[in-house]
Amino acid sequence: MLWLLPLCLFSCREDEYVTYMTDEDTGVPSVEETHFDGLYILNEGNMGSNRCTLDYLDLSGTDSTIHYYRNIYAERNPSTVKELGDVGNDIGIYGSKLWIVVNCSNKVEVCEARSTRRLGQVNIDNCRYLAFDGGFAYVSSYAGPVQVAENCPLGRVYKVDTLTMQKVDSVVVGYQPEEMAIVDGKLYVANSGGYRVPLYDNRIMVIDLATFQVIKEIEVDVNLHRLLADSHGQLWVTTRGNYFDVAPALYCLKDDKVVARLEVPISSMTIVGDSLYYIGTTFSYVDGGYKKDFGIVDVALQRCSVAVTFEAPEIKNITLPYGIIVNPHDRDFYILDAKNYVSSGELLHFDADGHFLWRVSTGDIPSRGVFLKSK
Amino acid sequence: MRIVLLIFLGSVGQWITAIAQDSVRVIDNVTVRSKIRYHETITPQTLKGEDLEKVNAHTVADALRFMSGVQLKDYGGIGGLKTVNLRSLGSQHVGIYYDGIELGNAQNGVIDLGQFSLDNIEEVSVYQGQRSAIMQTASDFANAGSVYIKTTSHLGKRSKSERGNKATKCHYLKTKIQSGSSNLLRLSALFESNINKNLLLSANAECLSTNGKYAFRYRRRNHDGSIAYDTTATRQNGDVQALRVEVNLYGNIVNGHWQAKAYTYHSSRGIPGAIVNNVWRRGERQSDDNTFVQGTWQKDVNPIYTLRAMAKYANYRTHYLNKDTTQMMVDNTYRQQEVYLSLVNVFEIAPWWSVSLSDDMRWNYLDADMPLFVHPTRWSILSSLATAMDLNKVQLQGSIVFSQYLDKTQSGLQKQSINSWTPALFASYRPFDYVQLSGFIKKSYRMPTFNDLYYTNIGNAFLRPESAIQYDLGVRVFGKAKLGFNGNEALTGSLEAHIYHNSVHDKIVAYPKGQQFRWTMLNLGRVHIDGIDVQAQESWRVMKNLRLSSRLQYTYQRARDVTDKTTSYYGDQIPYTPWHSGSATLMADYKAWDLAYNFVYTGERYCQQENILYNHVEPWYTSDIHLSWRHTFDRTICKATLEVNNLFDQQYDVIINYPMPGRNFNVTIQCEF
Question: In this predicted complex, what is the ipTM?
């Protein structure tokens, strides 16, 4: 029995505690007027790791320096069994509520937007992205009816009442629907068909929000992903290509017709005013690195613009750019670096001209962000 | 041990010609002292016979928990994947040998040790570096470490204990029934028969059924000590139905022997999957149909030259099915085939010097019904040249392996052939009778698997082999003492310690490709490993009928990721590698009763590359109890065993989100006829 003693000296198992947030002080003085109280950053977490986490950048100016709070969900909601979940995919604020789509936990988590306290969840299998309109949240989902002779389910879009947090309706769309955008009372849904490799889907479904029926299909290109509307009533949609002989690209649609195609590989994009900020990565087997693309498209002119240069050395040294967030007022921007997917990511902040300001560590695979407006 | 060997030696002449099976055993165990080609410069860690039962081991994976320098990954439950990793080099560097021939998996290099039952296994040994005996195949010299699994042949063993008694039994039958938690039912039978003086047949069948359900609990406390959440649930979709049939023929020829084996394993199981927020059960299933036939033939052609030939054909089919319409539906079948031929030539130039030359030829083919699949084929040709010297107190062994790999795919891609040279040097020195010093230096490669290279959209055909360099120094002390009972040497014990440094270069790691869920493989890792392995065992006959014994092993490891200085995890301990781990077994035998207590400890570790709070995983340790009682009814020996595993019901994950079973029970009844 004496043999056992040395082993217990090393350490015994302790009770497991709720994971607490860490406060990272950037050391950078706070900016007085940002129009925002904060910025939520959603970290995907690798599939199966249950490590979707939520970080919060305090922009309120209450502290003398800018603080970044990492992993806030578990501390604010300690009784949620197994925390926020597996693979966070999208985040949005509508009214007073914060909505988080947790893809592999088959749920949309709803929190109070200021306190991040949990209000409830909406169970939606394999849910992907969010859109909001007229008191409803629209959630795209890969899980739908399986066609006869087709070993692949069609996707759906669910309509959720944002007050009761209940699903009220759903409509079948194409294969593996991704992002959505709303223009003139119509919901546009980009379908990827990612489960049907190599038979990708190439359609945008148009849903009339009044009847919640699909009224039209627009063929664009294979493996559609990102979809945004600009202030000119145009739609911007990305295709990831087929990773083989069809290259990724960005398409512009007006009046449900393709009006422009730009050959840029885009993994994340956001529109502020007439500027579509994008980042893209193309993996290269030659050196195991990425060809990184950063740029701006002028949506009015439908062509690339050089409004901001992405030449800062800190931008060049980003390992894996995974998301871009632009402050709609001041146009300072943030780039999210996902590193190798299985370690802490980074949030880098740049001013509107592309000069580096500061950086902090985030959770695993930071992908999206949403600003919390000042009261 | 040496005394036993001497007794054996004294009677070699007497029973070398006795029973066919006998001579097979003799060659393996007894001629150790006379033929240099069987010398092992460094003794392995071995668990055999009843000791395997006493540590409640039912699969090879269970047994390996009690070996030092071994990291076992366990995804939980009877059906959960279990893989082994020696001294943190990575599981694909380990060769698993089943009766002398390597088990292969060209698809992903993973051998699920949970699928290898110990029902008919006599011995499990772990060799760090390589087995340092010279009479072995080129692939034995090529791996960075090996696990040897040796099947039993009971009639051989029995006739040994009855040597000189000509009335050796002709037939032997053992039946076993086991029932336990998770609706476990395991039935097995082993039949052996001496067909004639030179031929022994052994047949073994086992079936296993379990629903795989067990309770698990996740609990978190707030920092004030109050409970934040405390949830108990039942592990689902972990059911297993498996059938294994194995037939062996052992034959004797003039100045030699042969063995032929047919092995078939069929299983259907649920893949329990990760437990994450809001997901408590999954629906993926896997079925395996693995069949192989293999043969070994060996003959001393003349006093100087011995030839061993081996051949194997394996056919593995794995079927993955996911009918869950909320996820990507999967219905894929993978078929692997392997043909293996090996020749081992040993020349005993002098009683103290021998040389061996071995050639291995292996052909692998992988077929899958996935779209865009490239159907790869691989030819592996390995040649080894080795020499061993026994200079009385000093033993030396050197080997060099030349490996050549050539891949072809259906899409027309022909990968440039990869050629490599890997040397190894082993030495031991015995300054005193009871002390042995040893050391080795070795370089080895592991080829990228078919999945690493050619998996649709993930594989990277430009991968280079991953290499490992090992340095090891060890000391072994063994002793015996007259203590207590009757003046015989009633206390025996040994202590062995190794200190080592390993490095892994061009480690093949999964790396993101930029879009969600998209990965590829890169030669992007470098790991430095420093470690200490310690093992001790002792056996004390306290009274005539009472024997107490114990085994202890401890491993310290520092395995640092030194890939890239700019990363946040540079210099950090690699994932799932505890600094401290160990086990202890205490055994007491009293008349017909055996009692054993097993303790397994795995210290704190990190589940991802960065050693930060969020990745910290608490230590775990389990206690198991084994109690058995033996009785002879007429000529039938019966044994009843009760096992309690995880006695204190510790709730833990070996791999996070894959909960392990809590306290569980097994009852076994075994009869030998």
Answer: 0.93
